[in-house]
From TrEMBL:
It comes from the Bacteria. Pfam families: Aminotran_3. It comes from Simplicispira metamorpha. This is 4-aminobutyrate aminotransferase/(S)-3-amino-2-methylpropionate transaminase. The keyword Transferase applies. One of its GO terms (biological process) is gamma-aminobutyric acid metabolic process.
């Protein structure tokens, strides 16, 4: 395909700098022209392997044929009504399917929204309405969004909270277990008890919200024991447990919801990102009696549950079933983990390789010392990878984690090609 000579990354980025505020950050100065499964081509015709997946949005890959077909069929019928004005069956069918898929032996209902932050906000609204309480406990290192309330819930200051305060009141942060930094499950539970003693009595706490695997926080996995003890604590005090599955949901961790692997059934689950295979859609699924607490008109949104996104999401669920993508997630995760551990055996700057299903990361330290996070090396690896045509993302409270969110539909050959590039990046970065 012949391209206009002015369509190059540098020129487009210069236009972006002039037109768009600096607060909209960029991981890479690359402009995409098209994508297919786990590969993209930029405006200069260069091909890249996509290990970012739109930040966990493309579990079924770029432009999965079934998703594209479903959306095209919906385009030929109607694109928007606002569900609260004129309803449509796809919204109802998708709610029914998610209600059946969510853990818990109780009746469930589902609300659709547009973004992950919107889902979290509404989960808190629902919890407050159902309990008549106001307090919310979240966790240090957690990420829940960029709106005012979700910034308050988020346990990381830079860049998400810096300069944007004050934040909503009665939001408290507990410790998240982290063996590398000496924080145990007991420490985490003790920190909640300290909140009860020093900040707010449990009878005024509406909800505890937790990511089963922290996303932006560094792919830190909540031990099953923690989730089980949180469930018991919530039951003891009449507190609702919210699982934020915006990044972990839609099969990324090898089960549709990551929390399933703990045996715990939350009262409310938030999801978004890969739910609709690249189309904006979010959801809150929860106990029917809890979900019904807000009065009629208290929930909703103009674009919430877009018919195009609902059609896409139904196709995504079908693809998972037909292509056995939950097992594929586990297989992809094992392949990535093995590959990263092989690199770690050679480069001791990798202090830890961890993951759940295909949500895999490695954490970098100076001289392998967990007390010395190496954000500079992490950034160098990501930059070097892009130069070698592999898209990687970084994360973590200290900016020292490389995370992989490759589409589950990527071939083994493509995974191996990407891992080989990561190995080359470490060789190059540590040799310089």
């Amino acid at each position: 395909m012949q391209r206009e000579p002015h369509l190059n990354n540098a020129a487009l980025f210069a236009r972006r700098e002039a037109a768009i505020p600096r607060g909209v950050g960029h991981s890479h100065q690359i402009f995409i022209d098209r994508g297919e499964n786990a590969e993209i081509w930029d405006v200069e015709g260069q091909r890249y392997i996509d290990f970012a997946g739109g930040i966990a949005v493309l579990n079924t890959g770029h432009r999965h044929p079934a998703v594209v077909e479903a959306v095209k069929a919906q385009l030929d019928r109607f694109t928007h009504t606002c569900f609260q004005v004129l309803a449509y069956e796809s919204y109802v069918e998708l709610a029914e399917r998610l209600n059946a898929m969510a853990p818990g032996d109780f009746a469930k209902k589902t609300l659709f929204l547009t973004t992950g932050a919107e889902a979290v906000e509404n989960a808190v609204k629902i919890a407050r309405s159902a309990t008549g309480r106001s307090g919310v406990i979240a966790f240090g290192g957690g990420y829940h969004g960029r709106t005012l309330l979700t910034m308050g819930l988020t346990g990381k200051v830079v860049p998400y909270k810096a300069g944007f305060g004050p934040f909503p009141s009665e939001v408290f942060h507990a410790l998240f277990p982290n063996a590398l930094r000496g924080v145990s499950v007991d420490d985490a539970m003790d920190s909640i008890e300290a909140i009860f003693k020093n900040e707010i009595e449990p009878s005024r706490v509406a909800a505890i919200i937790i990511e089963p695997v922290q996303g932006e926080g560094g792919f830190n996995i909540a031990p099953p024991e923690l989730l089980q003890r949180l469930r018991a604590l919530c039951d003891q005090h009449g507190i609702l447990l919210i699982a934020d599955e915006v990044q972990t949901g839609a099969g990324r961790t090898g089960t549709w919801f990551a929390v399933e692997q703990s045996g715990v059934a939350p009262d409310l689950i938030t999801m978004a990102k890969s739910l609709a295979g690249g189309f904006p859609l979010a959801a809150v699924t929860g106990r029917a009696d809890v979900m019904d607490a807000p009065t009629a008109g208290g929930l909703g949104g103009t674009y919430a549950g877009s018919p195009l996104a609902c059609a896409a999401a139904l196709a995504v669920i079908d693809v998972f079933e037909k292509e056995n993508l939950l097992q594929r997630s586990r297989d992809v995760g094992q392949r990535l983990t093995n590959g990263l551990r092989a690199i770690a055996a050679k480069h001791h700057s990798i202090g830890d390789v961890r993951g759940m299903g295909a949500m895999v990361a490695c954490e970098l330290f100076k001289n392998g010392n967990p007390q010395e996070p190496d954000a500079a090396l992490t950034k160098r690896i990501a930059t070097e990878a892009a130069a070698r045509k592999l898209i990687l993302l970084t994360c973590g409270t200290y900016g020292n984690v490389i995370r992989i969110l490759v589409p589950l539909t990527a071939s083994d050959a493509l995974l191996d090609e990407g891992l080989a590039i990561i190995a080359e990046c470490f060789d190059a970065a540590l040799a310089s």
